[in-house]
Design brief:
The complex is a heterodimer of chains A (147) and B (331).
Chain A: H1 3-12, H2 19-47, H3 52-73, H4 76-83, H5 85-88, H6 91-105, H7 110-117, H8 122-144
Helix pairs in contact in A: 2-3, 3-6, 6-7
Chain B: E1 2-4, E2 9-17, H1 19-22, E3 32-33, H2 44-62, E4 73-76, H3 83-90, E5 96-99, H4 105-118, E6 124-131, H5 133-140, E7 156-157, E8 160-167, E9 173-179, H6 194-212, E10 222-225, H7 229-244, E11 252-254, E12 272-273, H8 275-291, E13 297-301, E14 303-306, H9 309-313, E15 319-322, E16 324-329
Parallel strand pairs in B: 2-3, 4-5, 4-6, 7-12, 10-11, 10-13
Antiparallel strand pairs in B: 1-9, 2-8, 6-8, 9-16, 13-16, 14-15
The chains are: A mainly alpha (147), B alpha/beta (331).
Amino acid sequence: MEKKEYKKIVDRHKPTETRIQNAIISFLIGGLVGAIGQGLIDFYSKFLDISSKDASVFMIVTLVFIASLFTALGFFDKWVTFAKCGLIIPITGFAHSMTSAGIEYRKEGPIYGLGMNIFKLAGSVILYGIVAAWLFGTIRYLLMGGM
Amino acid sequence: MTYKYDNVYVGGYSTVVGPYEKDGPLSKGFDKSYDNLYMGEKTWEQAEVRLLTDSIDILLKKVQKDKKNIDLLISGDLLNQVTSSSYAALKFDIPFFGIYSACASSAEGIILGASLIDGGKIKNCISATSSHNMSSEKQFRNPTEYGAPKPKTATFTSTGGASIYLTKDKTNIKVESSTIGRVVDMGQTDPFNMGAVMACAAGDTIYKHLKALKREPDYYDLILTGDLGVYGKEILIDYMHTEYGIDISNNYDDAGTMLYDLSKQEEVMAGGSGPVCSALVNYAKILPKMERGELERVLFVPTGALFSPTFVYQHENINSIAHAISLEAVR
C-alpha cells in the first residue's frame, strides 16, 4: 500500500478534537488570569502606594510564585491539562515549565540535573523572546527614533 | 520469517502493576500492585527497575525454580540503553540478553527464548519486560509535572513489570509458532498517534503469519495486538480489509483498549501503551483463560513504535515493528 492510501485510512479514523470548546476554555481562563493580574496591579499600586509600573513587576512576581507553588504541590499540571493555553501562554505557563523541569531533574543533582534542564522548555521562550525584543526595539528605534 | 516450534511451553507468568492499572478492569489478574508510582524508590527509573525485579522474583516463586536453574534472562524496556532491564538483571545473576523492539519487546524476547529452547541450546528461560508511565514521559516527552494537553489519539504508557517462563518441559500452553516482523514506514510522523504508526506493522506481520502457515483469521480464537488503542484498532481492521481483503473484526482485540476502563479512566485517552501493556493483558487475562479452557488458539501480536524524539525533530518518519506468536492450549 502507498503511504498516501494509508494516510487516507488513518484520516478516516481520526477523532475530531473539540477545538472550539478548547479555545473557549483557554480564552476564559486566560482572560481570568489577565484580570487577576490587573487586580493585583491595582491592589499593589493602591495599598503599597507605588507606580503602576512597579506594581506590574510585583504582579508578575506574585503570579510566578503562585504558579510555581501550585506546580510543586502537584496539582497545577491537572489545571494545565484542563485550561490548556489559558494557563500556558500567561507568565504562569513560563513559571510552570521551569518548576516542573526543576522538580523532574533535581534527582540528577544540582549541576547535571537541575542546572542543565531547568530551561528545557523555557529556553526557547527566552531565546526567541530576546530576539523578538531586539527586532521590535530596532524597528521602533528606526521608525520613531527611540521614542 | 515464520517457523513452528516442537517443544516450547509456557511454564508460568507474573505481573506487577502501578495504581492506574490496579484501578482498571484486570485488577484481579495481577500478582502484585502498588498504590504509589514511586514503588518505594527514589526515582521513576528506579521504580521501573523495582517493577521488573518484583515480577521476576514472583515468577521464580511461582514456577518453584532457583535463579541458578534458569539458563537465560531476556528483557527489554523503553529507557535509553535498556537500563531498567540491565539493572534488574544485575540482581539475579542469570545470563542476560537486553533487547529492544519498543513495545514489541516482549514478543522479541519470547521468540528469541523459544528459538533457543527449540534448538536445544537452553532448557528454559525467562522473558521479561517493563515500562513506567513517568519514566517514559520524562524521557520521550515533557517533565511529568508539566501536564501538556494531548490529542484524543494519544495513548498512556502503562506502568508495570511482566515476566514469562518458557521451558521445554510440557505444560498446558504451547508456544506453537512465531513470525518475526520487519521494520515498516508508512509515512507517519505524529508521536501522539502511535496507533496509526503501528497498525500497518501489525497488519503486515499478521498477514505474513497467516499466509506462511496457510491459515484463515478464524483459525485463532483471538488475535491480540499490543497497544494500538481505540483508533489504531479501527485502523488495523480497515487496513487488513483494504490491503489484504481479510476480515479480522470477529476475533480481534487490542490490549491497549483492555488494560484500562476507557470510559472511567479518561487520563489514558485512546488506551494503554508501552512494552508492558500487551504483556500485562496477555499474562493477566488471556493465558489464564487458555489454562481454564476458555480459549484454545491465540495469536499474540505486540506492536512497537521505533520512536526516537531526535529523529522526529530531524523530520524523519516514525517506524514500527510487530512480531507474532501463536499460543495453543494443550489438552
